[in-house]
Amino acid sequence: MARNASLSGYLEFLPTERLTELHVLDTLRHVFEIHGFSSLETRAVETMDTLLQKGEIDKEIYAVSRIHQDERAGKEAKLALRFDNTVPFARYVTENAGHLAFPFRRYQIQKVWRGERPQAGRFREFSQADIDIVGDGALPFRCDVEIAVVMARALEALPIGDFTLRVNNRKLSEGFYRTIGINDTAAVLRIVDKLEKIGPDRVAQELIDTLGASPRQAQSALDLAQIRTVDGSFAAKVRELVGEDVTALLNEGLTELSELMSELNARVPGRAVADLSIARGLDYYTGTVIETTLHGHEELGSVCSGGRYESLASKGKRVFPGVGLSIGVTRLLSALLNSGELAASRSVPTVVYVTLRSAEDWGAAQDIADKLRSRGISAEVALSAEKFGKQIKYADRRGIPFVWFTDDDGRHEVKDIRSGEQSEAHPSHWAPPAEDLNPQIIRKTENL
Amino acid sequence: MARNASLSGYLEFLPTERLTELHVLDTLRHVFEIHGFSSLETRAVETMDTLLQKGEIDKEIYAVSRIHQDERAGKEAKLALRFDNTVPFARYVTENAGHLAFPFRRYQIQKVWRGERPQAGRFREFSQADIDIVGDGALPFRCDVEIAVVMARALEALPIGDFTLRVNNRKLSEGFYRTIGINDTAAVLRIVDKLEKIGPDRVAQELIDTLGASPRQAQSALDLAQIRTVDGSFAAKVRELVGEDVTALLNEGLTELSELMSELNARVPGRAVADLSIARGLDYYTGTVIETTLHGHEELGSVCSGGRYESLASKGKRVFPGVGLSIGVTRLLSALLNSGELAASRSVPTVVYVTLRSAEDWGAAQDIADKLRSRGISAEVALSAEKFGKQIKYADRRGIPFVWFTDDDGRHEVKDIRSGEQSEAHPSHWAPPAEDLNPQIIRKTENL
Question: Higher confidence at residue A77 or residue B98?
């Protein structure tokens, strides 16, 4: 990871780093699948029209075109690489609605591309891991709970340390702003979203300057944004700010967020905070909104974000509401690899390196390796009968934990390179300790 | 798979099809990893310069560019999507040579893009699964054997039925053509490569017309191409054709192919044929060449191809020889899905669907599901307390095999939807039959 990418913004892992990434991706997949989420992949390209529907991120889009245009070119749609997994998923849902069973739970772990200016922790190609539940017409609020719980469990299962889901609800925010007399709630959300970046004073000033809010309204907005509770007590604080004047929308938001906090505290204790500063500037969220802070890596911003959108997609009069969260896998992983916090114990899947006494032993050595492989133990055979010291060094350089020897009488011994311990073994019975079967992913917190 | 792609040449799977694809990818990964191959991924884009080095396939390349060019644009390299996994891997090896341990075994399963005219079984985005072994300076011939054996085992592990590795050796072909007096061996290989497409008569004519071969030389070339043996007896047939006149190069080719056939017959019996018609038109192969026919799907052409190249990559005076094979996963898979030969038993990973008696039971039902999940059993909870018939239908529609019921006294029962069998169960102890834990991939050969 000290290496420079040969193409700015495009990260490529070395084998050891890739093993760590694989561990992370496998773990996410396992958690998603035991909760009943189906895997899905969409094509890398979308039509430009599909991508520009949301209108706001055209600057980052990579266009794709055949370098040898021909007579077909004029008839073909302009294409571009996807910049997230949500827009392609929405398109996929409308196209395949007749073949899907709703509510539809899917996970999607794919690369996305953005032509952003490359900088630390920002890549032009990166992986996102999304889960969403999509309904046909309606989707119970319980799906918000389910999504938040599943993602918290996924993050808990990763070797990334402590994190906090910061949860809020758009209905609560919008209901509150309307209650205090600010009606351009989309604008106020965009301004409050900058709180961590520009601080409370400038947020207040912007609310006054841009929206014509009174100083008192601006102060109320800031008061709301300062509410952070680890339980349901945020509701009383909000009611304190607005007095008796609780609108239906605000009430609905309070009820939803209370239910979400209560379920999160029951199912993934200590992982969630009701943080009423979370605004998520984007227009399409309509209820639950979530951001996630990784402790000790606050510089990364939110490592997992998302929420509820009443209209993920629509097809004629048919509307598909959804709720989802997305982990920025590459950004998360590259930070932990760069800091030395995460590492794999070896650079290859191999558990056993079978040595050669003579060049003619290669076939017999492959037979030994095959006996190990048939029991799921990854094995590799030396390519030439160099001195044993050199053969051991080959294994050691890759972090392969065990080396296999066979003597002239056909007796087998296996050596643990790390301890130097050597003992008799049989290729049909010997097995490594369970923790050596796969590369170990080591989290070194002393580096923090 | 009866659906039309919304973008011509871009295939997207439905959840059930994706489960089949995942099974295939997981199986390949397992076989590659137990043989000590490291996972690797390279970026989707390469510089145009890198891709055009080989010079011949520029027509199919997809260029990539930011739609909002700015002052940086002029300084940035022109980019394009990769069209295979070999060129990016070669670039990766030279860039990271100092960080890799040679010989380096890697597998790489990634999508590639080609702007070809879409047609049945030809896609513009498709997955390739590659394995290669790369050496630094030298690479023993045993690596050819290893690659062929590992790939044959990978194909054997897939639910795709019988296949044949058709193996040949460039040294044998080149040595033979030189021996009979044809010196433009690259040209003759390109012509002989068309044998299956245009037939022996037109190949002979082309050899005569284009290369000025005599009718006797053309006949000799055809005689060679007709040699097919399941064992090492091809060598005697070749010697019969050339008489005493065996050059060193021809001899080397015969020796290598004999060793390869002997090892393949020992390690993956019945999977290989020495087929001296296999030429592989590309310039960079220098020894072993392999194509693979899937029985009953000869229309697919070769489903797994590759070979030996003495210079996969080079860096100054440093040369990296390699040997590798590549499976065209998407083409293979789409053919088997389309014909109905392959299918998954369900569309979701879920094993158990936990029903609700009343809306208030949701939390308790999640507790039951969590007990199952903690033991690796994928479970989903109903979102609302509809009639049981409706809840069962929900599970049935997705192919979920088991439905869970809890009565008012807290007694649990689990029902196998397929058999209708219902029995008492406990969420901390009950487990499904092993074959139901993951979706089953079913191969229906009666469709053949």
Answer: B98
